[in-house]
Design goal:
By secondary structure, this protein is mainly β. The protein has a 6-stranded antiparallel barrel. A 6-stranded antiparallel barrel has the order 7-8-11-10-9-12. Helix content is 11%, strand content 43%. It has 3 helices and 12 strands; from the N terminus they run βββββαββββββαβα. The two termini are 28 Å apart. A hairpin with a 2-residue loop joins β1 and β2.
Length: 197
Amino acid sequence: MFSGIIQSKAKVLSVVRRKDIVLVTIHRPKGWKFAIGQSVAIDGICSTVVAQPSESFSVEYMPETLRMTTAAFIKRGDEVNLERSLRYGDFVDGHFVQGHVDGVGTVKETRRRDESVEITLSIPKHLARYVALKGSIAVNGVSLTVAKVSRADITVALIPHTLSETNLGSISKGTKVNVETDILARYLEPLAGIGVR
């Protein structure tokens, strides 16, 4: 479980494809240590640490993850958002994020508003029902508030801190991003007896 508050950005050092598995090695932020098997969110994808070479760490992605997330497009030199998993008793400053990406969105437009930036995303239509105006959504693992909703398009507003401390500051029209809708909306649907549309 994560909160959507990014703790660091880091560079992808290598991407190795082995049959149907992709091994990704990322620079390890200074002072960070992992246990093998520990979870870390990489651009919002809950990932398992499988190795920890000097000054780096490695994770593996299976076919389902490659199909559902931007892990399929990751390449050497990319800058990714990192968040370590929550511990019991931690403050949740964003919102509850599972790291179970619902789908890939595409940046339709970016608009600068003085020091902030508004980003409009096109998301898969089946996810639109889980997005509420002023509700929470995770984009590349970043906890954000939905500023506007229009069918399968959503708009989020980014403050200067988010622009400088996450990789959302460098996205542009056409960029693919990981989207995770609010966990509460997804769990309330079956409890309320709402059928799949």
